[in-house]
Design brief:
The protein has 13 helices and no strands. The protein is an all-alpha fold and 286 residues long.
């Protein structure tokens, strides 16, 4: 397997889609509920596709089941990280540390060992992601030690579901069928959790849902497209390289934030951007 130009372009498009639905969440007034709504609406997008593609091969079903459970753990850890610490601290730690963990795990579990150039690319992307994420600064409130523990746990969880889904999609016989089946089930538990936590103010919650669901559905489509591209790419290229490239979404999110949300783009973001671009070039040459 190699990372050819077509796969690289597709994964970068998927990263842009990932950044787009994250920017949509960032622009809203209730980020937790918008996130839950986007993932919960996955069933609306995915069910017609499952009807069209059929279920994936039986060999992939254990991976699907494991992925659904692991994704629930991801959402729980995400809630814990954001409850105890600032987004500017926890998000870049989660997303930036996951690719090296995927690279280590893919060598042990899948047998895909990276060469020196590929490792340099993975580490450059990861460091760039962390730099871009931290460029907005860290709010000092909250329990930062607890938040970091949740974020570190979630980096491991991201690596775990990446490996599980990488193996699952390769066993599925049809990447679209695998992703669609996953989206039917994986988002609803988190939506149920968020609604349960807000049960005392359900009227206001439902009013927000009624106002935001059209935009959230667009975000759902972008989220689905992003992950579908990533998992398809894992059938064509090493899982670790695809996982690292997918995190370039943080760069696209910074660009969208500067253009759409009028955020600054200072020296740390520029340095992080340079690292990410250097990493992408190294991954292409690996």
């Amino acid at each position: 397997m190699a990372l050819d130009g077509a796969v690289l372009a597709a994964v970068l498009l998927g990263a842009l889609l990932h950044a787009s639905w994250n920017a949509l969440i960032k622009s809203g007034s209730d980020k937790s509920l918008d996130t839950a709504l986007i993932h919960g609406l996955g069933i609306v997008v995915a069910l017609p596709l499952v009807a069209a593609t059929g279920l994936p091969a039986r060999a992939s079903w254990p991976f699907l089941g494991a992925s659904i459970v692991v994704h629930l753990g991801y959402y729980l850890a995400l809630v814990g990280a954001y409850k105890h610490g600032d987004l500017g601290l926890t998000y870049p730690v989660m997303r930036g540390l996951a690719p090296p963990l995927v690279a280590l795990a893919s060598a042990a579990v899948i047998g895909e060992r990276l060469g020196a150039t590929a490792w340099a690319g993975v580490l450059a992307v990861s460091l760039g992601v962390i730099a871009i994420g931290l460029s907005r600064g860290i709010v000092g409130g909250g329990q930062r030690g607890t938040a970091l523990r949740y974020a570190l746990a979630n980096a491991a969880i991201i690596a775990l579901y990446t490996i599980v889904d990488g193996l699952g999609v390769r066993a599925s016989g049809n990447a679209l069928a695998y992703v669609a089946t996953l989206f039917v089930f994986e988002g609803m538990p988190y939506l149920a959790l968020v609604l349960w936590r807000r049960r005392a103010r359900m009227q206001a919650t439902l009013a927000h849902v009624r106002a935001r669901w059209p935009l959230a559905l667009a975000g759902t489509a972008a989220s689905f497209g992003s992950y579908a591209i990533a998992l398809w790419a894992m059938t064509k290229a090493p899982v670790a390289l695809v996982a690292a490239l997918r995190e370039t979404s943080v760069l696209f999110a910074a660009l969208l934030g500067a253009l759409w949300l009028k955020e600054g783009f200072g020296a740390l973001r520029l340095g992080g951007t340079a690292l990410v671009l250097a990493g992408v070039m190294a991954l292409r040459l690996a």
